[in-house]
Amino acid sequence: MFNTKDGFLEATVRGCVGGFLRTEDYSNLQQCETVEDIKLYLTSTDYGSLLQNEASPTHPSLIVRCCLKKIVQDFSFFDLVKAAEPLSTFLQYLKYGYMIDNIVLMVTGAMHEREVTELLDKCHPLGMFDSIASLGAVSNLRELHRIVLVDTPISAYFGECFRDENLDEVNIEILRNSLYKAYLKDFFRLSQMLGGLTAEVMKEILCFEADRRAVNITINSIGTELSRDDRQKLFSDFGHMHPEGQRDLALCRDFEQVVSVIVNSTYQNILQKSTSEEMNIDKVFYETEVMKCSSMFAQQFHYGIFYAYLKLREQEVRNLMWLSECIAQDQKYRIVDGVISIF
Amino acid sequence: MVLVKGITSGFLTRETYLIIGSVFTISNLLLVLSFSKTTNNDKLIDWEYLGLIFRRINPYLWSAIGISCAIGLSVVGAAWGIFITGSSLAGAAIKAPRITSKNLISIIFCEAVAIYGVIVAIILQTKVEFAPRMPDGSYSDRSMFSGYAILASGITVGLANLVCGICVGTVGSSCALSDAQNPALFVKILVIEIFGSALGLFGVIVGIIISGNVAFKNPADA
């Protein structure tokens, strides 16, 4: 019965997946000498229609912006065909993560007294909402909630982190992470409510996401005044590392300890290959995410592929950004470090 | 509802005990009553008389139910298959328009399921003919047999085609999706689909065999 409502969109998103850059494309792109070459190469791919009208001095940020436009284009198509009820909520939930990022970006930018228009340019287009421009004017959390966010779906996530403090660097990070925690929890609840295959695949990927955030929070908070309890409070209350791994993470005091906690958890096999050299936890996690997301496409009749599609596109944008930056700055030998081919 | 909630929540509430208890009591009472004898040595429930009701049902009713099952369930199966395949095909064709004409085959496979149903319904319908009642108002054993045979045949064909249609439809939708990604896969999945659609044919064959001996009138009388 899945297909009555959602078969069309599912097939469409699968069609979009066919447009991802493949391993051959990446190895060809690595041969490019200038950013202009990259642009030329990309015109022959799915990005062609978006790139060809751009004026000539190409800048890496232009390529990235085009890629983002591509995501928005695909996504607005999903909106256009009017997804039926449970799916439309699911798609909305996918946007909330970007909204949170945008809010944080705006608030941080405003703190450093940047231009609002410049900041708006940097926001992720999927996370836009009406009142976002007024974010620059707020000075504390209560105001932020009352003036700007009350109309957005994010406001529900504010409940627990509702304090009267002024905004500063640390507070904003805490805000971001506690918002994200509430968001993940809500998303998890939604996907479990949908049941069936969706619940199964989304559980896997959201647990992974929760774990990754926990690790990131730990790494970022090492050496700051964030207390252990506060740190633990930011961890999601589900995930493969919940609760033992998270308790251990909360106690970590340096990077080696974090690695050893991860090795002791379910993620030991993904870390094994990279522990020997100077490794980059971020990259390992990204690689795993790509792997998990592409394996989602092996199953049919579930909503997970929309999530996977978005995450893979995100990775592609990261790849292209890294690639074009490397080429623009003439550091081609570093390309391999940052690019994770998807298929 | 309360029963299900009580059992799934892991412990039995007071309402649950009440419901389980009353269901037990009532069913026990019925059992005892039905086998106990009343004063003049009659059973309270006369099973033989109850069976008579079934035996007295007109064989033409049975054959009508059988025929409508054959065509109705087949069409449900075919429609189910077509909407599964069709929606996926339409979506996948946006990015890969070349797949449409090839994958119409999947739709045709689903359609075939409905055609099986139509064929069997027509065959069964031609076997139904008027047979006079016996002098006591009942129908002859031959007529009764024919009615039951057509019922069985129709249900067999209908159910077989229902699940066959779902099967072909699901495989067909995967076929469209994978063809869009990699054209080499089309023929391989088509083979799976052909085997899936053979299932419906088994039902048709068995249904025709079941109804093979149907004759409402005694051939000797004709």
TrEMBL record, chain A:
Keywords: Hydrogen ion transport, Ion transport, Transport. GO terms for cellular component: proton-transporting V-type ATPase, V0 domain. One of its GO terms (molecular function) is proton-transporting ATPase activity, rotational mechanism. The keyword Transit peptide does not apply. Gene3D superfamilies: ATP synthase (C/AC39) subunit, domain 3 (1.10.132.50), V-type ATP synthase subunit C domain (1.20.1690.10). PANTHER family: VACUOLAR ATP SYNTHASE SUBUNIT AC39. V-ATPase is a heteromultimeric enzyme made up of two complexes: the ATP-hydrolytic V1 complex and the proton translocation V0 complex. Belongs to the V-ATPase V0D/AC39 subunit family. Subunit of the V0 complex of vacuolar(H+)-ATPase (V-ATPase), a multisubunit enzyme composed of a peripheral complex (V1) that hydrolyzes ATP and a membrane integral complex (V0) that translocates protons. V-ATPase is responsible for acidifying and maintaining the pH of intracellular compartments and in some cell types, is targeted to the plasma membrane, where it is responsible for acidifying the extracellular environment. This is V-type proton ATPase subunit.
TrEMBL record, chain B:
Pfam families: ATP-synt_C. Belongs to the V-ATPase proteolipid subunit family. It comes from Bathycoccus prasinos. Proton-conducting pore forming subunit of the membrane integral V0 complex of vacuolar ATPase. V-ATPase is responsible for acidifying a variety of intracellular compartments in eukaryotic cells. It is a multi-pass membrane protein. GO terms for cellular component: proton-transporting V-type ATPase, V0 domain. Residues 65-124, 151-210 form the V-ATPase proteolipid subunit C-like domain. V-ATPase is a heteromultimeric enzyme composed of a peripheral catalytic V1 complex attached to an integral membrane V0 proton pore complex. One of its GO terms (molecular function) is proton-transporting ATPase activity, rotational mechanism. It is found in: Membrane. Keywords: Hydrogen ion transport, Ion transport, Membrane, Transmembrane, Transmembrane helix, Transport. The chain crosses the membrane at residues 16-35, 60-84, 104-124, 145-172, 184-210. This is V-ATPase proteolipid subunit C-like domain-containing protein. The keyword Membrane applies. InterPro entries: ATPase_proteolipid_c-like_dom, ATPase_proteolipid_csu, F/V-ATP_Csub_sf.
